[in-house]
Amino acid sequence: MGKVLKYGMVGGGIGAFIGEAHRKAINLDGKASIAAGCFSRSYENTLATGESLGIEKDRLYENYEEMAIKEANREDGIEFVVIVTTNYAHYDACKAFLNAGIPVVCEKPLTVTLKQALELEKLANEKNLQFMVTYVYSGHVTAMNIKEIIAAGEIGEIRTVMGEYPQGWLAFEDVQGNKQGEWRTDPAQSGKTNALGDIGTHIENTVFRMTGLKIKRLLARMDKVVPGRTLDDNSTVMLEYENGSTGVYWASQIAIGHDNGLRIRIYGSKGSISWFQEQPEIFHMAKQDGSLMEIHRGHSTIRQIAAKYTRLPSGHTEGWFEAMGNFYSNYIECLLAQRNDTFTGKMIEYPTLVDGVDGVRFIEACLKSSENGSIWVDF
Amino acid sequence: MGKVLKYGMVGGGIGAFIGEAHRKAINLDGKASIAAGCFSRSYENTLATGESLGIEKDRLYENYEEMAIKEANREDGIEFVVIVTTNYAHYDACKAFLNAGIPVVCEKPLTVTLKQALELEKLANEKNLQFMVTYVYSGHVTAMNIKEIIAAGEIGEIRTVMGEYPQGWLAFEDVQGNKQGEWRTDPAQSGKTNALGDIGTHIENTVFRMTGLKIKRLLARMDKVVPGRTLDDNSTVMLEYENGSTGVYWASQIAIGHDNGLRIRIYGSKGSISWFQEQPEIFHMAKQDGSLMEIHRGHSTIRQIAAKYTRLPSGHTEGWFEAMGNFYSNYIECLLAQRNDTFTGKMIEYPTLVDGVDGVRFIEACLKSSENGSIWVDF
Amino acid sequence: MGKVLKYGMVGGGIGAFIGEAHRKAINLDGKASIAAGCFSRSYENTLATGESLGIEKDRLYENYEEMAIKEANREDGIEFVVIVTTNYAHYDACKAFLNAGIPVVCEKPLTVTLKQALELEKLANEKNLQFMVTYVYSGHVTAMNIKEIIAAGEIGEIRTVMGEYPQGWLAFEDVQGNKQGEWRTDPAQSGKTNALGDIGTHIENTVFRMTGLKIKRLLARMDKVVPGRTLDDNSTVMLEYENGSTGVYWASQIAIGHDNGLRIRIYGSKGSISWFQEQPEIFHMAKQDGSLMEIHRGHSTIRQIAAKYTRLPSGHTEGWFEAMGNFYSNYIECLLAQRNDTFTGKMIEYPTLVDGVDGVRFIEACLKSSENGSIWVDF
Amino acid sequence: MGKVLKYGMVGGGIGAFIGEAHRKAINLDGKASIAAGCFSRSYENTLATGESLGIEKDRLYENYEEMAIKEANREDGIEFVVIVTTNYAHYDACKAFLNAGIPVVCEKPLTVTLKQALELEKLANEKNLQFMVTYVYSGHVTAMNIKEIIAAGEIGEIRTVMGEYPQGWLAFEDVQGNKQGEWRTDPAQSGKTNALGDIGTHIENTVFRMTGLKIKRLLARMDKVVPGRTLDDNSTVMLEYENGSTGVYWASQIAIGHDNGLRIRIYGSKGSISWFQEQPEIFHMAKQDGSLMEIHRGHSTIRQIAAKYTRLPSGHTEGWFEAMGNFYSNYIECLLAQRNDTFTGKMIEYPTLVDGVDGVRFIEACLKSSENGSIWVDF
Asked: Do D259 and A311 touch (CB under 8 A)?
């Protein structure tokens, strides 16, 4: 067995954006190559996608249950699987591969109910299988650097957090012809939430990964702004964390003028940090002495873990693929270590089921608050 | 009587920041000159301030009651008065001059109770006296331009508003030696609120002036973050407006890294606008066609009223004094028109008692919500 | 004699931009008030302007020669004069007032020939009269702060300077109806240069004031870009300074998209500084340790002289009028000191005839280079 | 033969930055995989590098001459080669593979003399072999978009261009331990130029690709600023293009505070464009009507060719690897088309020997000017 791992994919057929994006991110470092797939509910699409990727036909499957069993039984079977189906299918697909003993990478949100999420967590733990939930944004080197700076106490105790994720792409009534727009605004495909579940959870997770703050209680207002919409497209959450600090999260798809504006601002007793995912190569830090600094990926000020994931000198831009690639790189490193019995939990820098479960818990708590007139709800 | 009006001032003695700032703003255009004053509770300070300003001694008063009566009785008496005392003294001082028939300019917040504010409104209306409340920030040409753009329907119906006013100057426990820090954090001098009353009301007013939105209900969390603090230093408000749209306001004095970060973002059905008071010469507008524009004061895109207040070509920076000066310019223009019987309400572009009363109502509603566990409160 | 000085003005009649701007800048601090004027070659305009400013009729003059003599002979005569005529008239007007023993403030460029400039310098020195040339931009608090930082050696020895001043307002052939556009592009009114003389000299002066660098030699290309233009509208200068460092200046009026983009970047052996006049409240400094800082007017990092000119707390924007006002404030302070025999040259923080003469020398050297095929010319 | 091409690499052994960067960029899209290499003058390094990449040992070569011949003779031989050696070795290596009939990708600068560059151009044309010179920065989608916008005449005729590429990494005397710093400042390894050859040529090429402007003549000053340096570290070039427009290029390695600041500003008769490679997802365009726009990769305003290379929705950041990957994607597409006889020159969107030759010509002209006292030199 070489150093290049074999992986399979469920979902991500021709026409699907996120599966292709995962494949490119994995390709980047050349540490894993695709060997099997069940890319679509349409077997035809699976065959076409597989052929374009150079996968042998006997490893292109009609359904993921078959794929899980057959790959588990091959000597040269896949060494992890990537689940990039619609949200509703995550749970069953993850379970099938965990039961077959195959490590899983799954897109967020992990599942559509907290119960399912907790089940997967239990199952993965029992099977001792590594499980990554791909909240991509904290994979940026700058985000990792912020995590280390905060953990080192450089900005003191956190007092308040402002998180926002404005987008404008669903500001208009007509989403015809926009495939993603159609399914995201359709309860039959998206469940009980749109904006909050899709992008609000990225705020929740990015804040958690940067700060480690645990939510104590929250109050959510999930508005359906565009006429005719049946799922939230503009949601605000007020939060209290267990350490007594507070936060406000705003996730919107009707904010004309924003592409993908995830922005996290963290205010502590000694300083503050501001990070904006559309400029992921830099962040800003202010200190109690009045200094305002712009810090770049690759500068000497960068910390240990963050430095490890830097591929290019500062000023040579890295982006989304590299952020995702960083997590895959760590995940693969951990899988290899586990195989060599050198693995310890401290090696994990990727988002795990802890992140996945909390993301689903966050959605459920927000729905409970919003459906009851935006009241305070314990987490 | 010439075109240069005579005015008096209550408060604003040597050592007080805001009185001097008003005087400079009035000086700028040379349309009024100071002729009388009661600058301090210390008559000594009043005398010294008056002398430095070249005011004749018989027009330097020990108390404002005397000043109101005597100036009203002089043939060359002051033609308006500027009240820049501490908040607690506003009500009595305003009343004294209104009763004497002298038009009033008063700093915000207008009063410390809604009852007082409503009384002043009634009195000024009865006396038919013009009354300006100096919410300075919407005096910027760009803010006026935004008001006109929104009124013209260019960004469609407003859907949501994000207003924030982060400052960092009260992030630390020790405010000794910072005169303003001392009184602002002292309930005996500031009343029941600090951050919300001082800067939160600027968000409320700036949004109101730009959009005309009326608040329907709100929910406020007024946190005392810095150890030992007895008044709020970090406050968040969720709002619903009468037209069904929503808003979030955040006012903080513990946000290290911010000087005076009043920022208003307004999202409509056809476009959005973003304005930041620390860069008051520009604003950003996005439209439904995907265009993102930076608009500068002085450009051909500027609208009618805004254009009227432009003193310098674009790129020649105007700032705080000019914003304040714009309101004084309009106030004086309206006073002169009233005297010439050419005055109509349409001429008013300055903030009036409507703004002043709503500011106090906003504070009271937020206090009621916050003191009751951050519940929803009708406005 | 009170503390409020009386001043007169030559030029600046109704319709002229810069005279009104000077008057507002002087008004701001209330340290001088206008008492006499010869505002236009049209006496009618002078009378109208004077009346609107409340000047007594016997102090409104048909020509400046008469004004100089009569004001010098009045007991309550003006204590300084402000010359804001067209460039061609500067020399004669300045001379008239210097000869009458009246201190002079003159707009830049000082004169249209170096010979004239040197004469004025000689005359003012002989008469021991203070003379300010209003290169406004280095009057910003941030610009003063930069001067002090560089003088303190914080960025080490200067190695190279990039100065630029792009504007877009003359990018088009048709300047009809744009009064300033008409005379600036007309050699009969503007002399031998347009862009370089009008704005290129601002680069030259701002760099000089910030760094103290003396020009050793230069090479200039003064292009006439817009069809039909007979004066330069896009000029580039390469420079060598006496300390062996280098620079590049670019002044353009055809750079669509720029309003008034004076930007100075200074690179030293230990750090660098970047300043942009359209955001005059901040500047950026980088240090050899890799740190990138944003420094705000009013922060604790601000230095001594700069602090002295701060009128408002940081984040409360100051602009063009305040920059100009700062120089007037210092000029008046120096005049008063001279009268009280407490004056020393160290008190001068305003631009003097040294600045004025060098500005004219710069224009002549650039013309000499450009007219000879853009060759190197000694300064 | 499948769709995944086999490629070889010369240079890029363990420890070399740029070779690894090319491999990751090629990996991204999975259209080519590495099959052979001569990664270093040290065969040991080649073996180690090859093993880490999973290349069979018989395709790891001691020298590139052997590699060229053997690979050309294999039925499964490489289908193109990537040359990422030091600059001095480019010429011989390129020639070896061209002579063997293998298409070549070569890093810039193409060669160290113009004579060599012209020879390679002649040879590639004779052999009808596609040759890409990897000037990476115009591979960004935004750069391609700008090219199309300019070609469509949207900003009118170009009048002046400001190009700059400041870096700060060589601002200090001590470059010990910085491998790249050591060889770049060493004439024995870098030839006659450092800053101009390394980064100045990126300005030259990016401007050429965006605008198509041909240089007519130029004047260069190539300064050696840091004490002890024998090659230029701060270079300025004034240019005239064949259409009569002008330009200024500035390339510096001593500009503390800059990482990799390639910035191109292009001013036309109807508008202007500004592009900054450290924020490669956006650019700014100003139009004659006064509008200032920020344009994002992925927006509806994006043009045809640019759209083709977009991998992620706007706001999901792409960077350096994707820019390089775009050119490889087009190069491979062209190679496949050539094999299928569907190739036409119009398909080429990658930089060719035209770019490579002009880059070397630019260096030679600058050296000639600078060595003769910064005089004007015909191109």
From this structure: no
